[in-house]
Amino acid sequence: MFQFGSGEGDRELPPLSFFGGIEYNDGMMSKLENLIKEYREQGIQDQIDYDKLYLYSIITHSTAVEGSTVTEIENQLLFDEGISPNKPIEEQLMNLDLKNAYEKGFEYAGEQQEYSVEMLCTLSALVMKNTGSEYKTISGDFSSANGELRRINVTAGRGGKSYMAWQKVSSKLEEFCEWINSERKSLTKSDATKIYQLSFMAHYNLATIHPWADGNGRMSRLVMNMIQYEFGVIPVIVRKECRIDYIKSLSESQGAGNAEEFLDFMFEHHGNNLAERIENHRTSLQDDTLNLKNDTLNDTIKLSAKESTVYEAIKADCNISINDIVEKTGFSRPTVTRAIARLKELGIISRSGSKKTGHWIIQK
In whole angstroms, what separates CA 84 from the centre of its chain? Predict the structure, then answer.
């Protein structure tokens, strides 16, 4: 809970300490490196549409941390088909705005643009375009919908800690950008743990500066993902299920003036997410070989995990449409179309009738 006011009587958060002598758990780093290696060796990244479905997952969870109830499937329909879910319009706009901000942010990251206050304010304006507010203060008017830096002091909770005075924000944000630009120059794409370290510290420091009246959490996660995207590592999703622990680790690190607890949480959280995806991939491989008998050869036909999923969807409902398969599986339409073409080619399924009124026939 954040409050606006003078901050009088509250204790200001300790100053930033970029990388400040933090010692990392070697066991945790080694575990993460092994998970990243296994994730890549399994080719899991090649089975995910990172420019679309994975991005949609990042957006859904980031807004969910802020209270949105829009699901991933609902966001896919909202983003791709313009189908509005039965959710509050403000939540829908929050997700649409964050999608536009991520697309612009990844464009910047792909071009390896230098970070600047202007860039960050441009992204903040996209994040808050339709849900931002106008503020009239004794220090001057400003708009969070336009990405303008706050001109008011902010306190975390009743009787809690105050973020830095608004007068310091502009210069500290300049320092933040200089720090990121300097650190980026020393990184290579092979330094995965160092890339994550920088991205997590960027999240921590930007959230601690708290440059805007609204949207600081979403912006901090966006900048974190931009750094990861630029260097080609697996993007981190802060899952809504871990919202309480995530916020607690950030708050306690800010209170102590040391990012160690937050970094420990982020490294462990990302490792757990990778481990879960690897396990899900292994489970899907168990069903990769379907015992589809050939009347003459009596052999089996091997399908990919996605082909198997599409096959099972059609087998369960022979009247299912391609759009329904997309919604049911979460795959992109081109992925479903390719899987269906492969199933037809293998003689596993066929189509009877027109696209609108026809149905599927299971051949094997």
Answer: 21
**CATH code for the structural domain at 2-280:** 1.10.3290.10
The pLDDT score that the predictor gives to residue 309 is: 87
Residue ranges covered by each domain of the chain: 2-280, 290-362
Task: List, for residues 116-138, the tens digit of each pLDDT value.
Answer: 999 999 999 999 999 999 999 99
Alpha-carbon distance values, 201 to 181, 197, 333, 343 (Å): 13, 6, 37, 47
Query: Do residues 135 and 143 make contact, with C-beta atoms less than 8 angstroms apart?
Result: yes
Per DSSP, the three-state class of 324 is helix
Render pLDDT for 212-263 as a digit per residue (tens, 0 to 9).
999 999 999 999 999 999 999 989 999 999 999 999 999 999 888 889 899 9
Task: Give the CA distances from residue 23 to residues 201, 237, 249, 258, 271, in Å, rounded to whole numbers and listed in that order.
Answer: 13, 24, 16, 11, 18
Q: Tell me the C-alpha distance between 15 and 117, whole Å.
A: 19
Range 99-115 average pLDDT: 97
**Dihedral class, residue 212 (left if φ above 0, else alpha if ψ from -120 to 50, else beta):** beta
Rg, C-alpha atoms of the chain = 24
Chain segment 161-213, per-residue pLDDT in tens:
678 899 999 999 999 999 999 999 999 988 898 999 999 999 999 999 999 99
* Average pLDDT of span 152-163: 71
Residue with tokens 């999240």: 203
Nearest-CA neighbor of 364 among 286, 290, 288? 290
The tokens 């899987």 sit on which residue?
A: 339
Q: Find, among 122, 210, 217, 138, the residue nearest to 168 by Cα.
A: 210
Give the DSSP letter of residue 353. S
Distance CA 78, CA 212 (A): 27
| Nearest to 106, CA basis, from 94, 116, 98 | 98
- For residue 266, which of 291, 248, 283 has the smallest C-alpha distance? 248
234: three-class secondary structure by DSSP: coil
Contacts of 77 (CB under 8 A, 6+ apart): 83, 85, 327
Q: What is the CATH number of domain 290-362?
A: 1.10.10.10
Helix (H, G, I), strand (E, B) or coil at 345: helix
Amino acid at 227: I
